[in-house]
Amino acid sequence: MATYGQFCPVAKAMEVLDERWTLLVVRELLYGSTHFNELRRGVPKMSPALLAKRLRSLERVGVVQRRDEGGRSSYVLSQSGRELAGVVEALGTWGLRWIGELGEEDLDPHLLMWDMKRKLPVQEWPRARTVLALRFTDVTPTSARWWIVVNGGEVDICDFDPGFEVTAGVSTGLRSLVQVWRGDRSWPEALRSGEVVVDGPSLVRRELPRWLGQSELASVPRPA
Amino acid sequence: MATYGQFCPVAKAMEVLDERWTLLVVRELLYGSTHFNELRRGVPKMSPALLAKRLRSLERVGVVQRRDEGGRSSYVLSQSGRELAGVVEALGTWGLRWIGELGEEDLDPHLLMWDMKRKLPVQEWPRARTVLALRFTDVTPTSARWWIVVNGGEVDICDFDPGFEVTAGVSTGLRSLVQVWRGDRSWPEALRSGEVVVDGPSLVRRELPRWLGQSELASVPRPA
DNA sequence: CTGTATCCATGGCGATACTG
DNA sequence: CAGTATCGCCATGGATACAG
């Protein structure tokens, strides 16, 4: 860990946190991931060796507590780690307001589905099993089709047809759905523009924005 | 600038902010520094080449506005940059609470004096010129003696005797004064323990804690 | 004073393969 | 599933000197 040679608390914090990927791992832990490969899903472009290294660093500085669970390990934030929520939130708010341009390489369908799996507002969905068939119109075929299954408060995401009756189909450009999820665009606008198309009963077409919702940070006000 | 390939606002923010030194430069700009060598005083261990590079990066992403002022340049935060105050504050709060251990190399008397120069509560000082002669008992002779001159709301820090009549002398270990300044220890405790010794009229001995005060973050509550 | 230019070593980190 | 092991590049950034 490189040092700054400053007693300033900001510098001392950055000695721990400024290394590449570190705060994204913390973000995943804050979102509730506890196991190695679960963490990997949230930072897929990070090599496993580096993730292991970061977890060891975070454990050493007391941000993460590692527990051995008979062979496998689990990683949980300590009190110190949980308090990084304030830092992560400030970064997210700032990033949403001021770093709006997304490159093509930022648009990863796996990450979007993983994020949705964790944060879909299941309480808005019907009690009965509900299945959305999602199709990204502008994505390489192997990652273009997804199924969202909500049943009894549980969300499952499949990249193959699970075989259940489909409640509705959703067809959209990946960028459009990412923008709506982040709150860069609104659901009504995206539907009106025709960039997100819902194929199904009119009731579902009306409810879909509430079912899918938006990420937590979406409501952050944007600069005028 | 290395990318993460994620649309997450935290990741997009960190692409801009996670490089070494970047947020410390922003901190200096938030504290009001505007010129190159003024910034350098706040990040003395950073090479000038790297500082120039970081300033260019920050300008490119719209955090800093550079102005040409007839030969020299000044650097001012944009609206986007000013909003990084929330990030810096969250980092400082967390760092103060959880990264308490300071190594010897973190104890730089120049940085302490530079910080004090900017943030001394001059409104607490007498109207008439007041001079404190500071001596660090445990620091290499060339950086051990400092004079703080407060006059008409202006603070001057000298590393040589400015020749004015000295109101009082303060003798202390560098670490002790840093700890008090950060709020890791209280003024009463430091004086009582004898680690900070004030040599002067009893009125000054009473007033000194209010004159020097503590850094802004010092009041952050510490973990039990 | 305000930077720029150059050089160089380090090690961070990405890629890949592999193991219990 | 949960990591380790290894390799090698190249970019980061530290140091120093110098220029306008």
Structure commentary:
The structure is a homodimer. Chain A is about 40% helix and about 20% strand. In chain A, strand 1 (about 65-70) and strand 2 form a beta hairpin. In chain A, the strands form 2 sheets. In chain A, strands 5-4-3-6-7 form a 5-stranded mixed beta sheet. The first copy, chain A, has a two-stranded antiparallel ribbon with strand order 1-2. Chain A contains 10 helices and 7 strands. Chain A is globular, with a radius of gyration of 19 Å. Chain A folds into 2 domains: about 10-100, Winged helix-like DNA-binding domain superfamily/Winged helix DNA-binding domain (Arc Repressor Mutant, subunit A); about 105-210, SCP2 sterol-binding domain (Nonspecific Lipid-transfer Protein, Chain A, 2-Layer Sandwich). Chain A has about 220 residues and is an alpha+beta fold. Chains A and B meet through helix 1, helix 2, helix 6 and helix 7 of A and helix 1, helix 2, helix 6 and helix 7 of B. The structure holds a DNA duplex (20 and 20 nucleotides).
